[in-house]
Amino acid sequence: xxxxxxxxDPDEARRVRDWGLxxxxxxxxxAALGAGKEYxxxxxxxxxxxxxxxxxxxxxxxxxxMYKEGRELHKLGKAVVIRVPMSREGLRVVRLLNDDQxxxxxxxxxxx
Length: 112
Known about the structure:
- The protein contains five helices and five strands, in the order E-H-E-H-H-E-H-E-H-E.
- It is an alpha/beta fold and 112 residues long.
- Helix 1 (10-18) links the parallel strand 1 and strand 2.
C-alpha cells in the first residue's frame, strides 16, 4: 500500500515523511488558496519534502491553457506529475504532455 498526502502544508508533509508514511503528495490550487499560499511556491516546497511523485493539479479549463500550465508546473520539480481533469480537453492534454515526456494523472473520474 502507498500513502499519498493531500496537503497545502510542507510541515505536515515533513511530519508524515518522518513517520515513514509519505510515498507522494497531492497539491491542489483550491487548497493552496484556502491556506493563503502561492500555489507554485507550495508545489516547489512540497516537492523538496517528498521523494515520491507530487501530483500538481492544473486549474485552467481549456486544453491550450492546461497544456501551458502543465508545462510550467512540471519545471517546479523532477517528481512533479501533472494532474488534469477527466474531460475531452484533459485527455487531449494528457496526450500532448506525454509527447513531451511529462508524467500525467487523470483525476475526477466518476461513474453513475
